[in-house]
Automatic annotation (TrEMBL):
Homodimer. One of its GO terms (molecular function) is glutathione transferase activity. Pfam families: GST_C, GST_N_3. Residues 10-91 form the GST N-terminal domain. This is Glutathione S-transferase 1: isoform D-like protein. Gene3D superfamilies: 1.20.1050.10, Glutaredoxin. Keywords: Transferase. It comes from Dinothrombium tinctorium. The lineage of its organism: Eukaryota, Metazoa, Ecdysozoa, Arthropoda, Chelicerata. One of its GO terms (biological process) is glutathione metabolic process. Residues 97-219 form the GST C-terminal domain.
Amino acid sequence: EEVNGPFAKMVIKLYYMPISGPCRAVLLTARYLNIHLELIEVNLLKREQIKQDFIRINPQHCVPTIDDDGFILWECRAIMQYFVNKYRAGHSVYPEEPHLRANVDRLLYFDIGTIVAAQVEVTASQIVFGVTPDQSKLDNLKDKLRILDGILAENDFVAGSTLTLPDISIAAYITTLAAVNFDIYKFENISRWIKRLKSTLPDFSEINEKNVTRYKQMIENGEFRKVYNPLYQYYKSKR
Ligand SMILES: N[C@@H](CCC(=O)N[C@@H](CS)C(=O)NCC(=O)O)C(=O)O
């Protein structure tokens, strides 16, 4: 039965921006699982996420957000888990066996709570305001990537010998570091793993690499600073 394909009654809508890391994670997952999405671009540089129509859908005004026949969901990892639970139950990318799933869940929390937390400390002010990150924040990120590199010294993929959801969410995020000239490829196991993902995930270059390059160009053109710097100066003056 074609649950979600070209002849499905309802197509899942994805509100997204192509350069966004969590959006790339959702797109890579949908492509890998062959889940058809209707793409609706929300241009964050035009502040389209705070328009009333979008705020009504997602009061947290962030992408990625999906609308599956009226069911609204955001947070990329929750969306990826939902895709499998609802449309590809039993798929090895999010295993059902309790111990295997617990391990995959642990890595999804490691991703959002440890890797992304450390990465955002380094990249957010750099991307948005052009501020050089503190050495202590860079060192912290390197520590976390060293832990990831250690995990990948043992296994081909983060949760073991096969691809699971945290491979996709972690890779989509950390490859963004190229956009701020932070070299993740000096971590040998991470580097080999990214190569492995390129040959495992269909359209990895098109969905991920191309948009990281585009992201880098936008940062270098000052496109984020133009939009956000006046706001930054304003809030700083209020402190
Ligand atoms: N934890 C969220 C992060 C989502 C997020 O921060 N999205 C950014 C783009 S990468 C966004 O929409 N920012 C606009 C805003 O928050 O107004 C996820 O993993 O989906």
